[in-house]
């Protein structure tokens, strides 16, 4: 099963190509270069916060609310 981001990218690509074909038939010039620059935005990775790790026990989290280890209270790196 494809993820939601992949499905959105594929739908966007299909709509872009369909619109390109319609514009090509209407104006007689391919407009594919207008829509292709937006593809990296659709396939880009989401921005995840960096992982923080406890130097003593190895506890890891990406939650920015954690500043200290819940196991031993050590400040996360």
Brief synopsis:
43% of the residues lie in helices and 5% in strands.
What topology does this entry show?
Blueprint: H1 4-27, H2 32-35, H3 39-43, E1 52-53, E2 60-61
Antiparallel strand pairs: 1-2
What can you see in these coordinates?
By secondary structure, the protein is mainly α. The protein has helices at residues 4-27, 32-35, 39-43, and strands at 52-53, 60-61. It contains three helices and two strands. The mean pLDDT is 79.
Q: Radius of gyration over alpha carbons?
A: 22 Å
Shape: rod-shaped
> Major sheet: size, sense and barrel closure?
2 strands, antiparallel
Strand order of the largest sheet: 1-2
Order of helices and strands: HHHEE
State the helicity in percent bands. Answer: 40-55%
Report the sheet-strand fraction: 5-15%
Strand tally is 2
Give the terminus-to-terminus CA distance.
36 Å
Average pLDDT metric: 79
What structural class do the secondary elements suggest? Answer: mainly alpha
Low-confidence stretches: none
Number of helices: 3
């Amino acid at each position: 099963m494809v993820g939601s981001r992949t499905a959105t990218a594929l739908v966007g690509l299909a709509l872009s190509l369909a619109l390109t074909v319609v514009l090509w038939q209407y104006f007689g010039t391919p407009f594919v270069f207008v829509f292709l620059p937006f593809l990296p935005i659709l396939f880009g990775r989401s921005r995840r916060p960096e992982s923080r790790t406890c130097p003593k026990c190895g506890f890891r989290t990406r939650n920015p609310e954690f500043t200290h280890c819940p196991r031993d209270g050590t400040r996360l790196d």
